[in-house]
């Protein structure tokens, strides 16, 4: 069973790599990104899209963890207030 899971995971990774490779090869047009008057050097579209994906994959979990910690902090503070009010 363990080997089957590994084989399925390897197949999934290979399929994902093939899709990414196909995407990169199909999107070789050079574009320049302009933001607030600042122009980035021309790079292929695929580079910008993959960079945006990686940045989002890095920032998303960080924001989620921050929200979770903030929620837990609020719950603890609320419990403390209730405990003090109940005395």
Rg, please? 23 Å
Number of discrete helical segments: 2
Widest β-sheet, arrangement of strands: 1-4
Largest sheet: 2 strands, antiparallel
Number of individual domains: 1
Q: By helix and strand content, what is the structural category?
A: mainly alpha
How would you spell out the order of helices and strands?
Answer: HEEEEH
Q: In percent, how helical is the residue content?
A: over 70%
* Mean pLDDT figure: 89
Strand content: 5-15%
By DSSP, the count of extended strands is 4
Question: pLDDT under 50 segments (min length 5)?
Answer: none
Distance between the termini: 57 Å
Given the C-alpha coordinates, what overall shape results?
Answer: flat
Domain Lipopolysaccharide assembly protein A: 26-81
Transmembrane segments: 46-68
Protein name: LapA family protein
Keywords: Cell membrane, Membrane, Transmembrane, Transmembrane helix
Describe the secondary structure blueprint for this structure:
Blueprint: H1 2-26, E1 30-31, E2 34-35, E3 38-39, E4 43-44, H2 45-86
Antiparallel strand pairs: 1-4, 2-3
Describe the structure in your own words.
- By secondary structure, the protein is mainly alpha-helical.
- It has one domain.
- 77% of the residues lie in helices and 9% in strands.
- The protein is built from two helices and four strands, in the order αββββα.
- The strands form two sheets. Strands 1-4 form a two-stranded antiparallel ribbon. Strands 2-3 form a two-stranded antiparallel sheet.
- The longest helix has 42 residues.
- It is flat and about 70 Å long.
- This is LapA family protein.
- Keywords: Cell membrane, Membrane, Transmembrane, Transmembrane helix.
- One of its GO terms (cellular component) is plasma membrane.
- Pfam families: LapA_dom (PF06305).
